[in-house]
Design brief:
About 30% of the residues lie in helices and about 25% in strands. It contains eight helices and 18 strands.
Length: about 375
């Protein structure tokens, strides 16, 4: 028997489990695949971008992102200390660039939205952009600097969370899918392969786009898979500054460059499509011509957990707080991980937390 079973070993599941374990709870995480093999974070670029995405994000989610963003530096430093692993956290900042006059007009719209939300931003000339990211090409005509939009490496973050979880006394069971979840005799029964059954007092379902299929009968959430493809290129850029155009983003790592991302409503089909990859490469090379000379190291495909109203669902589904969900983060799972972990612990412990009102999964009942 375990006190708390967490279903899902992605960024959200591991962040919640680590937070619970280091605060004295006995936690077991059940991950259906190997660490990082199929979760959305395995294909994510790891941008921490509350400002760049403010005009495409519901206000409630923006408020959550701002709160989580404030926690991020201390959170990753704690994980680094607990795990001994680097997570690729970089605070160089983000440059939104314009490639033509239409893009410049769109940048003005972005700047107005960012300033209304209280974000720091600065208009950049072509020369200013090149000073921050020397790899940009002549098509770039201007930009906006977002100094507090950062990046982290999700794959390295997953590894650090797994080590920190185990260091705190938690258990991570990889390649252990949960086949059924049932309530019996005042506890939850998790049916595993080979006829094994695990009993838990509480369950946290944090399985991303797979969450609806793991909930017991009668519990429904409007979460769906939204496929995304990211091109991993086998060379770095001259600066770690992230570059965003209206149609693509380029995230420089220490040893590679990520180009993303498609947004495709195609169910669970995992294959990367040539058309989507072509559009990413076409846009990426306009901003960064050096992409033409980079080898393609990987086409990473993941499934974001899209949700109907664009606000993550974090909280209890029952009055006794025995069944907790944490999903529906869409493109912000990595960014919202520190805050989500705290909110899951508050839901488990019954602590007063006003932000849980905005993420209450029961808001979808009856509709």
């Amino acid at each position: 028997m375990t006190e708390i079973a967490v279903i899902g070993g992605g960024i959200i599941g591991l962040a919640a489990a680590e937070e619970l374990a280091r605060n004295g709870h006995h936690v077991t995480v059940f991950e259906r695949d190997g660490l990082g093999e199929s979760c959305a974070a395995a294909a994510a670029a790891g941008m921490l971008a509350p400002a760049a995405e403010v005009d495409a994000t519901p206000p409630a989610t923006t408020r959550l992102a701002i709160e989580s963003h404030r926690r991020f530096p201390a959170w990753v430093e704690r994980l680094r200390s607990a795990s001994g692993l680097d997570v690729g956290f970089d605070q160089t900042g983000t440059v939104m660039v314009a490639l033509d006059a239409d893009d410049l007009r769109e940048l003005v719209h972005h700047e107005e939205a960012q300033r209304r939300a209280g974000f720091e931003t600065r208009r950049l000339s072509r020369e200013d952009v090149r000073a921050l990211q020397p790899s940009v090409g002549p098509a770039v005509v201007g930009g906006l600097l977002l100094p507090h939009d950062w990046q982290v490496d999700p794959r390295q973050l997953l590894a650090a969370l797994a080590v920190a979880l185990r260091s705190a006394g938690g258990v991570l069971r990889e390649r252990t899918p949960v086949e059924a979840l049932e309530r019996q005799n005042g506890a939850w029964q998790l049916r595993l392969p080979g006829g094994e059954t695990v009993t838990a007092r509480r369950v946290v379902v944090a399985a991303g786009a797979w969450t609806p299929g793991l909930l017991p009968a009668g519990a429904r959430l409007p979460i769906r898979p939204v496929r995304g493809t990211v091109v991993r290129l086998a060379a770095p850029l001259e600066s770690r500054a992230v570059v965003r155009t209206p149609r693509a983003y380029i995230v420089p790592r220490a040893d590679c460059t990520l180009l993303g991302a498609t947004v495709e409503e195609r169910g669970w089909a995992r294959e990367a499509l040539a058309g989507g990859v072509f559009e990413l490469l076409k846009e990426g090379r306009r901003a960064i011509p050096a992409i033409d000379e980079m080898a393609i190291a990987e086409l990473a495909v993941g499934f974001r957990p899209g949700i109907r109203d664009g606000v993550p669902t974090i909280g209890a589904l029952d009055e006794e707080r025995t069944l907790i969900v944490a999903s529906g983060h869409y493109r912000k799972g990595v960014e919202l991980a520190p805050l989500t972990a705290e909110l899951v612990r508050a839901a488990v412990e019954g602590a007063p937390e006003p932000m849980l009102r905005h993420t209450d999964p029961r808001r979808f009942e009856g509709g």
